[in-house]
Design a protein that fits this description.
about 325 residues; alpha/beta; TIM Barrel; nine-stranded mixed β-sheet; 11 strands; globular; disordered N terminus
């Protein structure tokens, strides 16, 4: 996701050259304890994206109070330079608008899933020189907020490079070893048939080292050709994802669906002839319930309102709708 679709820790020098086993131990020692979760529902299961650095974001506490959605995914953490994570690569982890948003979400009874990456900006996966350094960058953010969930939205430059894809997967394996209970979603583009070559390579890299994230989430939009039924097109893409996960991990398709997710878009997408209606989202919701998907979400709460002079790319959906209608639909998903 970009603003068209979206959008090291101090001991990193010592970690970068260490054997992986030692890195895991170091990360476990450095990591802050994960806060207890009051609800049994996973944080990432139904947590729409909101981007505090884009357009005119709706107050996150009000979104929770008005819609009944439990959790939100906040985007995007990028590289400030030298493998140093900050919001958009420019806003500090602590003391800024993003930390205040997290505090407001938690005060409203919700929880936050922090998303790294997106389409634009300097990606940590590309900037960090090793899997250990990248894991340290992820760990810095996890520790700053005592997170229970992270999302790696791998697109564009991160996704194009086989070396970077492998680095991301190896870093996530280190993070998972340090935090066995941490929810990890990996989000990436797909065609109507499911993951494309780069997505399949990402899955193969993870399966080869035994990393199974909580959710492999496809973004079934921007297909390039006009679609009049984005609901069923998205379902077909998710079916393709399940088949690929079943093959890569040697598991049943039923089990594969429980590690699969859909991240849609609301209203107009980046393709002029492509629109995701509320009816389309309800089609995805019915499918998610039927197959017990690990995740159902959309980009973005910022746009979840009718246009009244705002820019559809950032501030509204571009279609007739009630305010926060897509978020209310996501709030209905409980696995």
């Amino acid at each position: 996701m970009t603003p068209a679709r979206s959008a090291a820790i101090t001991r990193r020098g010592r970690l970068c050259g260490a054997p992986l086993a030692l890195v895991v131990v170091a990360l476990m020692c450095l990591a802050a304890p994960l806060a207890a979760r009051a609800s049994e529902q996973p944080v990432e299961m139904a947590a729409p994206y909101e981007y505090m650095g884009w357009g005119d974001p709706q107050p996150p506490a009000s979104v929770i109070e008005q819609t009944g959605v439990s959790d939100l995914t906040l985007a995007f953490v990028l590289d400030k330079g030298r493998c140093n994570p900050e919001w958009d690569g420019s806003r500090p982890l602590l003391g800024g608008v993003d930390e205040h948003a997290i505090e407001a979400i938690r005060a409203a009874g919700g929880e936050v899933d922090v998303s790294f990456g997106g389409w634009s900006g300097r990606k940590l996966g590309s900037s960090c020189a090793s899997a250990a350094a990248l894991a340290g960058a992820y760990e810095k953010v996890i520790g700053a907020y005592s997170l229970r969930a992270i999302d790696i939205d791998i697109e564009h430059t991160e996704l194009r490079s086989s070396k970077v894809r492998r680095r991301v997967i190896e870093a996530l394996a280190l993070v998972r070893a340090a935090h066995p209970a941490l929810e990890i979603s990996i989000t990436f583009p797909a065609s109507e048939a499911g993951p494309e070559a780069q997505g399949l390579s990402l899955i193969a890299d993870a399966a080869s080292i035994g990393l199974q994230p909580s959710s492999w989430t496809i973004m079934p939009f921007d297909f390039g050709a006009a679609k009049t039924d984005m609901g069923h097109a998205s379902v077909r893409a998710a079916e393709g994802l399940a088949r690929d996960l079943s093959s890569a991990y040697a598991i049943s398709e039923a089990d594969a669906y429980e590690h699969a997710g859909i991240s849609s878009m609301n209203g107009d997408t980046d393709e002029p002839a492509e629109t995701v209606s509320l009816e389309d989202l309800h089609t995805m919701l019915a499918f998610a319930r039927q197959q017990r998907l690990a995740r159902l979400t959309f980009w973005a709460v910022n746009r979840d309102r009718p246009c009244g002079g705002g820019a559809p790319e950032e501030e509204c959906s571009g279609i007739p709708q009630e305010a926060l209608a897509f978020t209310r639909a996501i709030a209905e998903y409980h696995g």
